[in-house]
Amino acid sequence: MLQPSVRPRGLPVPAGPHDWGFFGPASISWRIHSSPVLLVGGLRALIIQSLNPLAMAGIDQHSDYLRRPLSRLRRTAEYVATIVYGDSASAQRSAEMVEKLHSRVKGIDPITGSRYSAADVETKIWVHCVEVHSFLAAYRAYGGRMSEAEQDAYLAEQVRAAELMGLPSKLVPSSRAGFREFFEYMRPGLCVSEASRDAIELVVHPPMTRELLPHQVSLRMMASAAVAITPGYMRRMAGIERSRLVYFGAAAGTRAAGVVMRGRASSIRWAATWSAAAR
Fold first, then answer.
1. pLDDT at 218
2. What residue ranges do the domains of the chain occupy?
3. Between the CA of residue 197 and those of 202, 203, 235, what are the distances in Å?
4. Which helix (H) or strand (E) holds 108?
5. Nearest by Cα to 60 from 123, 104, 109
6. Is the pTM of this model over 0.90?
């Protein structure tokens, strides 16, 4: 576990009087993570992550996401915003807190009979890669244009986020080519289980609960947008093929969702920016 006073190996010390954290205003990460389309990426990530039985077992057995999905989405958004926009100390504290929580996530996967642990390196790389790739996919589809070099730069920057979670940088893909190789390597072990169907159903058909009822329109539009950018073989595996026409409604849905749902994450981002600028 990282100690608060220790900077992870390989991460640069912020230059100048301002501590912009591990990314900074000139980074591709700041540009991408300022867009509300990342919420679509988050839903895509849940669909894809659920197809890994060991990762899904940990989520299913140690999370309240089915009962309080919006709260879980907000907590994740706050964590990502702190890692990207917070100063270095805040980012490290958040990473340490998540690592401490994850240290308790372990058990037996009912599908494979294998032991799982949130501390397992391959599982952590899977979660990191799916999340980061989903953010990039959502931004490319609905946020703005990006050159191939910019896409690779973003993936390389996000290795820093993986390092904060205790992953050695040499094991983390840092380019589109590296991500393709990793997903192909993981593909044979992916499957749909009862737990993953619950997760996918939550995304595609959000229930009419008190928590979600006010957001049904934007959630369903975001879900369609997320499904549209999920790889075809994964859609077929999960049984969620959709018409490509959903692209036309995606932008409006993500804008509406951003206004309603991203409040605290935006507050963290701007507070981090202005506090650093004021020093």
1. 85
2. 28-271
3. 8, 10, 12
4. strand 106-108
5. 109
6. no
